[in-house]
Amino acid sequence: MRGLLGRRRLPPPLPLFPTAKRATQPAMSRILAKINRFLPASRLLRLLLLLAVLSLIPPVFFHFRLRRFHRMREMKCGWIANPPMVCAHGGDSTNAFPNSMEAFQMALDSRVDCIEVDVSRSSDGVLFALHDR
Predict the structure, then answer these.
(1) pLDDT band for position 51 (cuts 50, 70, 90)
(2) Which residues are 89's β-sheet partners?
């Protein structure tokens, strides 16, 4: 007999080998019964719900994985948050002669923290920059 709203549900099949009555259901079947109450009846909607839940797993996984990666990096490389001071010895001596105005200007252009200058005084009292005496 068909109802006005759709197909009639069939009763569950009888077991081939009836067993004695159990006092309680196993825990897993009780959990599945509770979950089935909240799921939609349509197979298509169940599939869409399953795909939606599965699509949330990778972002959550990589979020926690990335947090762990950042913690490990901070432990190994603590200086990243507080970097060391960069001091140019004699200016940028790789691109210009050391202790020259060009080397000092190039070092300032490359945004170093400080420039170390070797200053000496001549016998007549004049200051000059020279690496070795």
Answers:
(1) very high
(2) 116
